[in-house]
Each structure stands twice: as structure tokens, then as C-alpha cells.
Amino acid sequence: MKKAGILNRHLAGALAGLGHGDGVLVCDAGMPVPDGPRVVDLAFRAGVPSFAEVLDGLLDELVIEGATAAAEVRQANGEAAALLDERCPDLRLVPHERLKELSAGARLVVRTGEARPYANVLLRCGVFF
Fold first, then answer.
1. What's the confidence (pLDDT) of residue 64?
2. What distance in Å separates the CA atoms of residue 46 and residue 20, rounded to the nearest whole number?
3. Would you name the residues annotated as active-site residues?
4. Where would I find the H helices in the chain?
């Protein structure tokens, strides 16, 4: 058994299969989950695990070359907006409806227990070399 890093076997396996350019949607409990991508639902109860905890864990495990979030996060969820600005320096903002459209192309969806609006981000995988 792993003693460090991501312990959830479904998530660890899904991350191991990602390649350059693949999309990973990290979403709150209210984001519609698109048909098609593999889904790892980590939601345990409202707020657990938080968007911040899951995002930080994924950023520790992945090389990210880009991120996209809903522009509405700036007004509706200042805490998530600040977190995204800090963790994703090249953050691209699009209307929420466009983020939902882009999410359909994700290879993996990781659902958190976050219960605040617009705590969602689409990460684009990079390479480590």
C-alpha cells in the first residue's frame, strides 16, 4: 500500500493514465458531470473534501500547462477565485456555460464535496520534461 501521495486507488490509477494535453475537470458537488470522461467522485459530505484540498493534491501529482475556470467565480466565490489565481498563474476565464461545454472533452472528472458556487477548474496536463 502506498504511504504517501494520493491513496484513493481509483484516482491514482486514473492519474497514471493521463497524457500530454489531457483534461482533468476538478469540480464542486453541483457541477453537471458530462457523459464520457472517467469520473472519480471523492464527495463524502458537503465541503468534504474541499476544492482546495483536492486541487492541491492534484497539483502535487500532475504537471499542468494550463487551466480554465468560469469567469463568474470572481464575483460569486472570492475564495475559490483567489485560490485559482494563486495556484494557476496562467488561468483562463470563460463563461460558465462554455466551461461546461469544454468539460465534455475532459478525460477525467474529479468531483469534490465543495458546496460553494463555481469551485471548478479544467486543468490541461503537461509533460515533466
1. 96
2. 32
3. 20
4. 9-16, 51-61, 73-76, 78-87, 96-103
